[in-house]
Amino acid sequence: MTSGARRRARVTVIRMSDIPAAPVIVADEPGTFPHGVLAERHPAIVRQVREAFPYGPARHRALDALLAECAEGVVAPLPADAHDRERWRAWGMDTYTGRSWFDVPWLWSESFFYRRLLDAVGYFGPGPWQGVDPFRPSKRAELDSPATDEELAALDDLAGRPEDEQALALLHGSLWGNRADLGFRLSAEGAGRSAAVSALVADDSERLWPLLGASSAATLCLVADNAGRELVPDLLLIAHLLAHGRIRRAVLHLKPYPYYVSDATTADLVDAVRRLTGAGGAAAAYGRDLWAALGDGRLALRTHPFSCAPLPYADMPDDLRADFAAATVTVVKGDLNYRRLVGDRYWPPTTPFADLTRYFPGPVAALRTLKSDVITGLDAGTEAALTAAEGQRWRTAGTHALIQVRT
Ligand SMILES: O=P(O)(O)OC[C@@]1(O)O[C@H](CO)[C@@H](O)[C@@H]1O
Protein backbone atom coordinates (compact mmCIF):
# COMPACT_ATOMS: atom_id res chain seq x y z
CA MET A 1 0.00 0.00 0.00
CA THR A 2 1.41 3.43 -0.91
CA SER A 3 1.57 6.07 1.80
CA GLY A 4 -1.15 8.02 -0.05
CA ALA A 5 -3.41 4.98 -0.02
CA ARG A 6 -2.64 4.38 3.65
CA ARG A 7 -3.57 7.97 4.37
CA ARG A 8 -6.82 7.64 2.41
CA ALA A 9 -7.67 4.39 4.16
CA ARG A 10 -7.02 5.78 7.65
CA VAL A 11 -10.22 7.00 9.27
CA THR A 12 -9.82 8.83 12.52
CA VAL A 13 -11.97 8.20 15.53
CA ILE A 14 -12.98 11.86 15.74
CA ARG A 15 -16.68 12.19 15.05
CA MET A 16 -18.49 15.11 13.43
CA SER A 17 -22.12 14.47 14.32
CA ASP A 18 -22.71 10.90 13.13
CA ILE A 19 -20.04 10.90 10.37
CA PRO A 20 -16.57 9.61 11.25
CA ALA A 21 -14.21 12.39 10.19
CA ALA A 22 -11.46 11.53 7.71
CA PRO A 23 -7.94 13.02 7.71
CA VAL A 24 -7.66 16.64 6.63
CA ILE A 25 -5.57 16.99 3.45
CA VAL A 26 -2.11 18.42 4.14
CA ALA A 27 0.57 18.90 1.46
CA ASP A 28 3.45 17.45 3.46
CA GLU A 29 4.19 14.33 1.42
CA PRO A 30 6.37 14.64 -1.69
CA GLY A 31 4.83 12.85 -4.63
CA THR A 32 1.26 13.60 -3.63
CA PHE A 33 -0.98 15.91 -5.64
CA PRO A 34 -1.26 18.61 -2.94
CA HIS A 35 2.50 18.69 -2.44
CA GLY A 36 2.97 19.18 -6.19
CA VAL A 37 0.57 22.13 -6.15
CA LEU A 38 2.57 23.96 -3.47
CA ALA A 39 6.01 22.93 -4.72
CA GLU A 40 5.47 23.33 -8.47
CA ARG A 41 2.19 25.01 -9.39
CA HIS A 42 2.55 27.99 -7.06
CA PRO A 43 6.07 28.93 -8.26
CA ALA A 44 4.83 28.56 -11.87
CA ILE A 45 1.95 30.93 -11.10
CA VAL A 46 4.34 33.50 -9.63
CA ARG A 47 6.51 33.26 -12.76
CA GLN A 48 3.48 33.63 -15.02
CA VAL A 49 2.23 36.70 -13.18
CA ARG A 50 5.70 38.28 -13.17
CA GLU A 51 6.00 37.84 -16.93
CA ALA A 52 2.53 39.18 -17.66
CA PHE A 53 3.12 42.73 -16.33
CA PRO A 54 5.92 45.30 -16.45
CA TYR A 55 6.09 45.50 -12.68
CA GLY A 56 8.68 47.75 -11.05
CA PRO A 57 11.47 46.67 -8.67
CA ALA A 58 9.31 46.78 -5.53
CA ARG A 59 6.82 44.31 -6.96
CA HIS A 60 9.63 42.04 -8.20
CA ARG A 61 11.21 42.05 -4.76
CA ALA A 62 7.87 41.17 -3.16
CA LEU A 63 7.35 38.31 -5.63
CA ASP A 64 10.88 37.01 -4.96
CA ALA A 65 10.21 37.10 -1.23
CA LEU A 66 6.95 35.20 -1.65
CA LEU A 67 8.66 32.55 -3.80
CA ALA A 68 11.41 32.07 -1.24
CA GLU A 69 8.93 31.91 1.61
CA CYS A 70 6.82 29.28 -0.14
CA ALA A 71 9.82 27.12 -1.03
CA GLU A 72 11.84 27.17 2.15
CA GLY A 73 10.23 29.32 4.72
CA VAL A 74 7.31 29.44 7.05
CA VAL A 75 3.96 31.17 6.70
CA ALA A 76 4.27 34.90 7.42
CA PRO A 77 1.22 36.93 8.44
CA LEU A 78 -0.45 39.64 6.37
CA PRO A 79 1.04 43.13 6.87
CA ALA A 80 -0.19 45.01 9.92
CA ASP A 81 -2.15 47.45 7.74
CA ALA A 82 -3.86 44.84 5.53
CA HIS A 83 -7.55 45.77 5.23
CA ASP A 84 -8.63 42.20 5.90
CA ARG A 85 -6.11 41.24 8.55
CA GLU A 86 -8.75 40.73 11.23
CA ARG A 87 -10.79 38.57 8.88
CA TRP A 88 -7.78 36.35 8.19
CA ARG A 89 -7.05 36.16 11.90
CA ALA A 90 -10.58 34.83 12.33
CA TRP A 91 -9.88 32.40 9.49
CA GLY A 92 -6.84 30.87 11.25
CA MET A 93 -3.87 33.10 10.37
CA ASP A 94 -2.53 33.24 13.92
CA THR A 95 -2.70 29.47 14.22
CA TYR A 96 -0.71 28.83 11.04
CA THR A 97 1.78 31.71 11.10
CA GLY A 98 5.30 30.39 11.73
CA ARG A 99 4.52 26.90 10.42
CA SER A 100 5.77 25.42 7.16
CA TRP A 101 3.45 25.99 4.19
CA PHE A 102 3.56 22.24 3.72
CA ASP A 103 2.36 21.41 7.24
CA VAL A 104 -0.90 23.33 7.43
CA PRO A 105 -4.23 22.27 5.90
CA TRP A 106 -3.84 22.38 2.13
CA LEU A 107 -7.07 24.27 1.64
CA TRP A 108 -5.74 26.97 3.96
CA SER A 109 -2.23 27.21 2.47
CA GLU A 110 -3.51 27.44 -1.11
CA SER A 111 -6.03 30.09 -0.27
CA PHE A 112 -3.53 32.14 1.71
CA PHE A 113 -1.00 31.86 -1.14
CA TYR A 114 -3.43 33.67 -3.48
CA ARG A 115 -4.11 36.33 -0.87
CA ARG A 116 -0.37 36.89 -0.38
CA LEU A 117 0.23 36.97 -4.13
CA LEU A 118 -2.27 39.82 -4.42
CA ASP A 119 -0.31 41.64 -1.75
CA ALA A 120 2.94 41.08 -3.62
CA VAL A 121 1.55 42.65 -6.80
CA GLY A 122 0.00 45.58 -4.96
CA TYR A 123 -3.59 44.60 -5.77
CA PHE A 124 -5.04 46.07 -2.60
CA GLY A 125 -2.94 49.21 -2.89
CA PRO A 126 -2.64 52.05 -2.40
CA GLY A 127 -0.48 52.56 -5.46
CA PRO A 128 -0.51 52.26 -9.24
CA TRP A 129 -1.20 48.49 -9.28
CA GLN A 130 -4.25 48.74 -7.08
CA GLY A 131 -7.13 46.75 -8.55
CA VAL A 132 -5.08 45.33 -11.46
CA ASP A 133 -5.98 41.64 -11.72
CA PRO A 134 -2.67 39.74 -12.13
CA PHE A 135 -4.49 36.92 -13.93
CA ARG A 136 -6.41 39.11 -16.37
CA PRO A 137 -4.13 38.52 -19.40
CA SER A 138 -4.56 34.74 -19.24
CA LYS A 139 -8.30 35.01 -18.58
CA ARG A 140 -8.75 37.40 -21.51
CA ALA A 141 -6.66 35.22 -23.83
CA GLU A 142 -8.91 32.28 -23.10
CA LEU A 143 -12.11 34.24 -23.56
CA ASP A 144 -10.87 35.61 -26.88
CA SER A 145 -9.60 32.25 -28.15
CA PRO A 146 -10.85 30.47 -31.29
CA ALA A 147 -12.03 27.64 -29.03
CA THR A 148 -14.51 30.06 -27.44
CA ASP A 149 -15.63 31.16 -30.92
CA GLU A 150 -16.35 27.54 -31.81
CA GLU A 151 -18.34 26.96 -28.64
CA LEU A 152 -20.42 30.08 -29.24
CA ALA A 153 -21.05 29.20 -32.88
CA ALA A 154 -22.41 25.79 -31.80
CA LEU A 155 -25.25 27.62 -30.03
CA ASP A 156 -26.83 28.39 -33.42
CA ASP A 157 -27.49 24.65 -33.98
CA LEU A 158 -28.64 24.13 -30.42
CA ALA A 159 -31.34 26.78 -30.79
CA GLY A 160 -33.37 24.47 -33.08
CA ARG A 161 -33.44 21.55 -30.63
CA PRO A 162 -36.27 20.72 -28.20
CA GLU A 163 -36.12 22.67 -24.94
CA ASP A 164 -35.21 19.72 -22.70
CA GLU A 165 -32.34 18.76 -25.02
CA GLN A 166 -31.07 22.32 -24.92
CA ALA A 167 -31.27 22.34 -21.14
CA LEU A 168 -29.34 19.05 -20.87
CA ALA A 169 -26.68 20.22 -23.34
CA LEU A 170 -26.23 23.48 -21.43
CA LEU A 171 -26.01 21.65 -18.09
CA HIS A 172 -23.25 19.47 -19.51
CA GLY A 173 -21.59 22.53 -21.03
CA SER A 174 -21.50 24.10 -17.59
CA LEU A 175 -20.20 20.87 -16.03
CA TRP A 176 -17.39 20.22 -18.51
CA GLY A 177 -16.62 23.93 -18.68
CA ASN A 178 -15.04 23.30 -15.28
CA ARG A 179 -12.06 21.83 -17.10
CA ALA A 180 -11.28 25.37 -18.24
CA ASP A 181 -9.27 26.08 -15.11
CA LEU A 182 -6.10 27.99 -15.90
CA GLY A 183 -4.30 27.06 -12.68
CA PHE A 184 -4.96 23.38 -13.31
CA ARG A 185 -3.62 23.62 -16.86
CA LEU A 186 -0.30 24.92 -15.57
CA SER A 187 0.52 21.52 -14.14
CA ALA A 188 -1.89 18.97 -15.58
CA GLU A 189 -0.86 16.61 -18.30
CA GLY A 190 -3.35 15.53 -20.91
CA ALA A 191 -6.01 17.91 -19.70
CA GLY A 192 -6.77 19.21 -23.16
CA ARG A 193 -10.17 19.21 -24.76
CA SER A 194 -9.69 15.89 -26.50
CA ALA A 195 -9.40 14.07 -23.19
CA ALA A 196 -12.95 14.98 -22.16
CA VAL A 197 -14.12 11.52 -23.05
CA SER A 198 -14.91 9.80 -19.83
CA ALA A 199 -18.26 9.24 -18.31
CA LEU A 200 -19.60 10.79 -15.18
CA VAL A 201 -18.62 8.95 -12.03
CA ALA A 202 -21.94 9.99 -10.49
CA ASP A 203 -24.96 11.50 -12.20
CA ASP A 204 -27.90 12.69 -10.10
CA SER A 205 -29.20 15.03 -12.79
CA GLU A 206 -32.62 13.34 -12.70
CA ARG A 207 -32.98 14.77 -9.20
CA LEU A 208 -31.86 18.21 -10.32
CA TRP A 209 -34.43 18.79 -13.06
CA PRO A 210 -37.48 18.72 -10.77
CA LEU A 211 -35.85 21.55 -8.79
CA LEU A 212 -35.32 23.53 -12.00
CA GLY A 213 -38.78 23.59 -13.42
CA ALA A 214 -41.22 22.35 -10.82
CA SER A 215 -42.24 25.89 -10.08
CA SER A 216 -41.80 29.02 -12.14
CA ALA A 217 -41.12 30.79 -8.83
CA ALA A 218 -37.81 28.98 -8.41
CA THR A 219 -34.62 30.78 -7.46
CA LEU A 220 -31.33 29.25 -8.58
CA CYS A 221 -28.19 30.14 -6.67
CA LEU A 222 -25.08 29.36 -8.69
CA VAL A 223 -21.73 29.50 -6.95
CA ALA A 224 -19.43 30.16 -9.89
CA ASP A 225 -15.91 28.86 -10.29
CA ASN A 226 -13.74 29.82 -13.27
CA ALA A 227 -14.11 32.77 -15.62
CA GLY A 228 -14.03 32.47 -19.41
CA ARG A 229 -14.90 29.09 -20.82
CA GLU A 230 -16.54 27.96 -17.59
CA LEU A 231 -18.46 31.14 -16.75
CA VAL A 232 -19.79 31.50 -20.30
CA PRO A 233 -21.63 28.13 -20.21
CA ASP A 234 -22.78 28.84 -16.65
CA LEU A 235 -24.35 32.05 -17.94
CA LEU A 236 -25.88 30.30 -20.94
CA LEU A 237 -27.51 27.79 -18.60
CA ILE A 238 -28.89 30.59 -16.42
CA ALA A 239 -30.16 32.49 -19.46
CA HIS A 240 -31.89 29.37 -20.76
CA LEU A 241 -33.56 28.55 -17.43
CA LEU A 242 -34.81 32.15 -17.11
CA ALA A 243 -36.02 32.36 -20.70
CA HIS A 244 -37.98 29.12 -20.45
CA GLY A 245 -39.57 29.92 -17.10
CA ARG A 246 -37.79 27.08 -15.31
CA ILE A 247 -36.61 29.62 -12.75
CA ARG A 248 -37.80 33.13 -11.94
CA ARG A 249 -34.54 34.41 -10.57
CA ALA A 250 -30.86 33.52 -10.38
CA VAL A 251 -28.25 34.62 -7.87
CA LEU A 252 -24.66 34.28 -9.08
CA HIS A 253 -21.88 34.15 -6.51
CA LEU A 254 -18.56 35.49 -7.84
CA LYS A 255 -15.22 36.04 -6.14
CA PRO A 256 -14.67 39.46 -4.55
CA TYR A 257 -11.06 39.49 -5.82
CA PRO A 258 -8.81 37.40 -8.11
CA TYR A 259 -8.29 33.90 -6.77
CA TYR A 260 -7.01 30.47 -7.90
CA VAL A 261 -5.82 32.06 -11.16
CA SER A 262 -9.01 31.90 -13.17
CA ASP A 263 -11.83 32.23 -10.64
CA ALA A 264 -14.54 34.58 -11.87
CA THR A 265 -14.85 38.11 -10.49
CA THR A 266 -17.38 40.80 -11.44
CA ALA A 267 -14.97 42.13 -14.09
CA ASP A 268 -14.86 38.65 -15.62
CA LEU A 269 -18.65 38.49 -15.62
CA VAL A 270 -18.78 41.76 -17.55
CA ASP A 271 -16.18 40.46 -20.02
CA ALA A 272 -18.17 37.24 -20.51
CA VAL A 273 -21.49 39.00 -21.11
CA ARG A 274 -19.86 41.46 -23.51
CA ARG A 275 -18.18 38.55 -25.30
CA LEU A 276 -21.64 37.03 -25.82
CA THR A 277 -23.34 40.22 -26.96
CA GLY A 278 -20.48 40.87 -29.39
CA ALA A 279 -20.51 37.38 -30.86
CA GLY A 280 -23.54 37.53 -33.17
CA GLY A 281 -26.08 34.76 -33.75
CA ALA A 282 -27.68 32.84 -30.90
CA ALA A 283 -24.81 33.75 -28.56
CA ALA A 284 -25.63 37.44 -28.87
CA ALA A 285 -29.28 36.77 -28.06
CA TYR A 286 -28.21 34.97 -24.87
CA GLY A 287 -25.97 37.93 -24.09
CA ARG A 288 -28.77 40.45 -24.52
CA ASP A 289 -31.08 38.35 -22.33
CA LEU A 290 -28.44 38.22 -19.62
CA TRP A 291 -27.86 41.96 -19.85
CA ALA A 292 -31.60 42.55 -19.45
CA ALA A 293 -31.83 40.08 -16.54
CA LEU A 294 -28.97 41.86 -14.75
CA GLY A 295 -30.75 45.15 -15.37
CA ASP A 296 -34.10 44.13 -13.96
CA GLY A 297 -32.78 42.02 -11.08
CA ARG A 298 -33.71 38.55 -12.35
CA LEU A 299 -29.98 37.85 -12.31
CA ALA A 300 -28.39 39.19 -9.12
CA LEU A 301 -24.67 39.16 -8.30
CA ARG A 302 -22.97 38.47 -4.99
CA THR A 303 -19.29 38.82 -4.01
CA HIS A 304 -19.28 37.56 -0.45
CA PRO A 305 -15.87 37.61 1.34
CA PHE A 306 -16.43 34.00 2.41
CA SER A 307 -16.20 32.98 -1.26
CA CYS A 308 -12.41 33.38 -0.85
CA ALA A 309 -12.24 31.86 2.62
CA PRO A 310 -9.82 29.00 3.34
CA LEU A 311 -12.60 27.12 5.11
CA PRO A 312 -15.32 24.60 4.38
CA TYR A 313 -18.85 25.81 3.68
CA ALA A 314 -19.93 24.13 6.92
CA ASP A 315 -18.36 27.21 8.60
CA MET A 316 -20.24 29.75 6.49
CA PRO A 317 -21.50 32.93 8.15
CA ASP A 318 -25.20 33.53 8.79
CA ASP A 319 -25.81 36.02 5.97
CA LEU A 320 -24.44 33.61 3.37
CA ARG A 321 -26.40 30.77 4.92
CA ALA A 322 -29.56 32.88 4.59
CA ASP A 323 -28.83 33.52 0.91
CA PHE A 324 -28.48 29.81 0.18
CA ALA A 325 -31.51 29.01 2.34
CA ALA A 326 -33.66 31.30 0.19
CA ALA A 327 -32.77 29.40 -3.01
CA THR A 328 -34.77 26.54 -4.49
CA VAL A 329 -31.43 24.93 -5.22
CA THR A 330 -27.80 26.00 -4.99
CA VAL A 331 -25.50 24.74 -7.74
CA VAL A 332 -21.90 24.68 -6.58
CA LYS A 333 -19.38 24.65 -9.42
CA GLY A 334 -15.92 23.17 -9.61
CA ASP A 335 -13.29 21.31 -7.72
CA LEU A 336 -12.37 23.81 -5.05
CA ASN A 337 -15.99 24.50 -4.18
CA TYR A 338 -16.54 20.74 -3.93
CA ARG A 339 -13.63 20.46 -1.51
CA ARG A 340 -15.21 23.22 0.56
CA LEU A 341 -18.68 21.74 0.28
CA VAL A 342 -17.86 18.27 1.62
CA GLY A 343 -14.71 19.17 3.56
CA ASP A 344 -11.13 18.89 2.25
CA ARG A 345 -10.49 15.42 3.61
CA TYR A 346 -9.52 11.97 2.46
CA TRP A 347 -13.08 10.64 2.70
CA PRO A 348 -13.68 7.02 1.86
CA PRO A 349 -15.14 7.50 -1.66
CA THR A 350 -18.38 5.74 -0.73
CA THR A 351 -19.16 8.23 2.07
CA PRO A 352 -22.65 9.47 1.16
CA PHE A 353 -22.63 12.96 -0.39
CA ALA A 354 -25.98 13.62 1.28
CA ASP A 355 -24.54 12.93 4.74
CA LEU A 356 -21.64 15.34 4.26
CA THR A 357 -23.85 18.12 2.88
CA ARG A 358 -26.67 17.74 5.41
CA TYR A 359 -25.58 20.99 7.07
CA PHE A 360 -26.24 22.94 3.86
CA PRO A 361 -29.32 25.15 4.29
CA GLY A 362 -31.26 23.86 1.28
CA PRO A 363 -31.03 21.59 -1.74
CA VAL A 364 -27.53 21.60 -3.19
CA ALA A 365 -25.99 20.25 -6.38
CA ALA A 366 -22.29 19.87 -7.19
CA LEU A 367 -21.12 20.11 -10.82
CA ARG A 368 -17.45 19.27 -10.85
CA THR A 369 -14.66 17.75 -12.88
CA LEU A 370 -12.36 15.74 -10.62
CA LYS A 371 -9.08 17.62 -10.06
CA SER A 372 -8.08 16.75 -6.49
CA ASP A 373 -8.18 13.74 -4.18
CA VAL A 374 -11.49 14.55 -2.50
CA ILE A 375 -14.34 12.33 -3.59
CA THR A 376 -17.58 11.20 -1.98
CA GLY A 377 -20.82 9.56 -2.98
CA LEU A 378 -19.45 6.86 -5.28
CA ASP A 379 -20.89 3.40 -5.29
CA ALA A 380 -18.35 0.72 -4.46
CA GLY A 381 -18.46 -0.77 -7.97
CA THR A 382 -17.68 2.54 -9.63
CA GLU A 383 -14.73 3.18 -7.37
CA ALA A 384 -13.36 -0.31 -7.93
CA ALA A 385 -13.71 -0.02 -11.72
CA LEU A 386 -12.01 3.38 -11.83
CA THR A 387 -9.13 2.22 -9.67
CA ALA A 388 -8.69 -1.00 -11.61
CA ALA A 389 -8.48 0.97 -14.86
CA GLU A 390 -6.41 3.94 -13.76
CA GLY A 391 -4.97 3.51 -10.29
CA GLN A 392 -5.69 6.77 -8.43
CA ARG A 393 -5.24 9.04 -11.45
CA TRP A 394 -8.98 9.43 -12.01
CA ARG A 395 -9.16 11.55 -8.88
CA THR A 396 -6.93 14.36 -10.13
CA ALA A 397 -6.61 14.20 -13.91
CA GLY A 398 -9.67 16.30 -14.75
CA THR A 399 -10.91 13.59 -17.11
CA HIS A 400 -13.91 12.53 -14.99
CA ALA A 401 -16.81 14.55 -13.71
CA LEU A 402 -19.82 14.29 -11.44
CA ILE A 403 -23.26 15.70 -10.86
CA GLN A 404 -24.31 15.10 -7.25
CA VAL A 405 -27.52 16.38 -5.72
CA ARG A 406 -28.82 16.50 -2.15
CA THR A 407 -32.46 17.50 -2.07
O1 LIG B 1 -12.01 24.80 -8.47
P1 LIG B 1 -11.48 24.40 -9.80
O2 LIG B 1 -11.18 25.58 -10.66
O3 LIG B 1 -12.34 23.40 -10.49
O4 LIG B 1 -10.11 23.63 -9.57
C1 LIG B 1 -9.16 24.16 -8.72
C2 LIG B 1 -7.93 23.37 -8.76
O5 LIG B 1 -7.24 23.48 -9.97
O6 LIG B 1 -7.17 23.92 -7.75
C3 LIG B 1 -6.82 22.98 -6.77
C4 LIG B 1 -5.39 22.81 -6.79
O7 LIG B 1 -4.81 24.08 -6.78
C5 LIG B 1 -7.54 21.72 -7.06
O8 LIG B 1 -8.58 21.58 -6.16
C6 LIG B 1 -8.10 21.88 -8.43
O9 LIG B 1 -7.35 21.08 -9.25
UniProtKB/TrEMBL annotation:
KW Metal-binding (keyword) present: yes
SUPFAM superfamilies hit by this protein: AF1104-like (SSF111321)
Record-stated family: Belongs to the damage-control phosphatase family. Sugar phosphate phosphatase III subfamily.
Co-factor requirement: Mn(2+)
Record-given protein name: Damage-control phosphatase ARMT1-like metal-binding domain-containing protein
Keywords of the record: Hydrolase, Manganese, Metal-binding
GO function terms (MF aspect): metal ion binding; phosphatase activity
UniProt record, GO biological process: DNA damage response
Coiled-coil ranges from the UniProt annotation: none
Domain Damage-control phosphatase ARMT1-like metal-binding: 38-383
Known catalytic reactions: beta-D-fructose 1-phosphate + H2O = D-fructose + phosphate; beta-D-fructose 6-phosphate = dihydroxyacetone + D-glyceraldehyde 3-phosphate
Domain of life assignment: Bacteria
Native species: Streptomyces pilosus
